[in-house]
Structures are given as C-alpha cells and as structure tokens.
Amino acid sequence: MYAIWFTFQKEDETLLQNIIDTLSKKYNSISFKPHISIYGLTNIKLNKISNICQSISSESKPFNVDLLNISYSNNFWKTIFINLEKNIIMKKIYNNFNEKINKFENNIFEPHISLIYKKMSNEQKKEISNTFKLKKQFKINGISILHYSDKIEDWNIVKTFLFQKNN
To answer: pLDDT tens digit string along 60-105?
Structure first.
C-alpha cells in the first residue's frame, strides 16, 4: 500500500521534525516524517504512481501553505495537527491526481500536518495544542511516495520528486 505526500523545504521540515520528535519523546509515541497527505492508501503499482508523480512534479513549482490553526480530534490520524488553508495550487495538484488515478478509495483531501499520533484525553490534546507558536506559512517543494505499514515505525519513503517548474 502506498500514500502520496507533499514534502517541505529543508528549513520547514527541520522545524516540524523537531516538534514531532519532542512530542513523541514527551508522550511516548512514534516519531514520523512531517508531511501533508495528498492521497492514500492505494495498491496501485509503484511504477505507475512514480510516473504520475514525475509528471505532476515536472509541471509544478514550490509554493507556500498557510496555517489556519492548531487543532485536535478523536481521529487517531489527526490527534494534534496544524490545519492548513486549502489553496488553489494544492487543489490543482490534488485534482491532477484525481484525473490520473481513479482507483483510490475514500480519499478526502483535508490538508493538515499531524504533530503526534496517540490516544490521549481531549484535555491533554487541548493543553498541548495551546502550547505552540508556529510560523504562519510553510514551503512545499515536492511530493513523496510512502510505502505504508500499519506500524508507523515501518513507514518508508520510497521516492521523492522535487517540483521542477521555475515560473
């Protein structure tokens, strides 16, 4: 099974990774690479997904995403997360995947950056989400294909495609 992620420029990736690592150590959870899920999960062959990602990345240029707020939910995959504004570039790339691949099931595009995956009380999630002061924008510079596992520690990025368009 594979998922497709937006990836961050190095400075933003480092900032987010530090937050994720700090939370995972403090609350005894698994660390993971910062990302914004575009699509997943699918059993489509890696070479087909790679070709689509290569095509989309060659037509795209780096762009900024704006932070709306830090939130939490009862959904394990959105325990505590950064809610992002769904901008026109993100929508275009998501729609491009929709046009090229129609075998994904139950995919809803809700752009966010998860900061921790863990079962916690709402009080604890609220307290944690109120402790962050983050920058208002993050820069996206590419897309990655993740080999998914039920165990977060076994997640593996198999290919990354940097956006190539200059203007």
So the answer is: 999 999 999 999 999 999 999 999 999 999 999 988 887 777 654 5
- Written as six digits, the tokens of 153 are 């520690």
Fold of 2-162: Cyclic Phosphodiesterase; Chain: A, (3.90.1140)
* Confidence bin at 28 (pLDDT 50/70/90): very high
**What's the burial of 12, exposed, middle or buried (CB within 10 Å: 0-12/13-18/19+)?**
buried
With H, G, I as helix, E, B as strand and everything else as coil, classify residue 154: helix
Instruction: Cis check for the bond before 16: say yes or no (omega within 30 of 0).
Output: no
- Contact partners, residue 34, CB within 8 Å, separation at least 6: 8, 12, 13, 16, 17, 20, 113
* Per-residue pLDDT, 103: 52
- Tokens representing 8 are 């961050």
Alpha carbon 32 to chain centroid distance? 10
Q: Where are the domains of the chain?
A: 2-162
Q: Select the more confidently predicted residue: 34 or 39.
A: 34
Distance of CA 125 to the CA centre of its chain: 20
Tokens matching residue 98: 């929709």
Is 21:11 a contact under the CB 8 Å cutoff? Answer: no
Q: How far apart are CA 104 and CA 166, in angstroms?
A: 30
